[in-house]
Amino acid sequence: MNNATLQLKIKQRLNKLASNDFDNIECWQIVEAFNKAQVEWVRRQLHGNNLFKEGDESSKRRVDDLQALLTQTQLIGSKRKKFFESKELPANYLQFKRVDAYAKTDCCPERGMTVYLAEEANADQLLRDIYRKPSFEWSETFCTLMSNKVRIYTDESFKISDAAITYYRQPLNIQILGCVDPYTQVESTTNVECEFKDDIVELLIDEAVSILAGDIESMGQYQRGTQSAERNN
Fold first, then answer.
1. Is-contact 86 153, C-beta < 8 A?
2. Average pLDDT, the chain
3. How confident is the model at residue 16 (pLDDT cuts 50, 70, 90)?
């Protein structure tokens, strides 16, 4: 959906198509509300805090709706005493999905590892647990997240030769050509359209409308936008 249609739909839902009073909605307000709506909608779907209580990949619809945000990148880092620590995660990181890793030892060739996400608070206990500690023989280990970095534990029994993280990234922010951001005073020099499918954009429009309606204390439009976004989710 192009940005001209998106703006038109939002103004229509707010009943501002022909309004010349002080409640006019400026382009930067639409951009800010829509980008906020994207983040709120995505987080709600990932967590399952929605009408159908479906989290990521818990149904075909969630897989289809959120697959555009799944991305993978190599983990570059360094060896520490008990673990491999990556550099900081990408700036667009939103939520963890999985880590793929390959390991090797001095006597054995490289092999793929099954990596489980664990809590950093339990790292010491896991390292002492004979059934859950890192094992090159069983091709299993665990990782934790700390300081915006990934730690893949090796317990000094093997070396990580290659690793990658699959994660949900932040949705791309839309931009409207010629719109000036009041926070940065920078004018958009291009149009950046929403990356989601049109049916999802319709839901995001309702989300954005409810945000804007709340800002201008228009309770009727606020309730309609909130209900429509959830009912059709």
1. no
2. 88
3. low
Instruction: Print the SS3 string covering the chain.
Output: CCHHHHHHHHHHHCCCCCCCCCCCCCHHHHHHHHHHHHHHHHHHHHHCCCCCCCCCCCCHHHHHHHHHHEEEEECCEEECCCEEEECCCCCCEEEEEEEEEEEECCCCCCEEEEEEECCHHHHHHHHHCCCCCCECCCCEEEEEEECCEEEEECCCCCEEEEEEEEEEECCCCCECCCCECCCCCCECCCCECCCCCHHHHHHHHHHHHHHHHHHCCCHHHHHHHHHHHHHCC
- pLDDT-wise least confident of 3-12, 65-74, 88-97, 168-177: 3-12
Residue of 154, 160, 148 lying closest to 81 (CA atoms): 154
Of residues 156 and 23, which shows the higher confidence score? Answer: 156
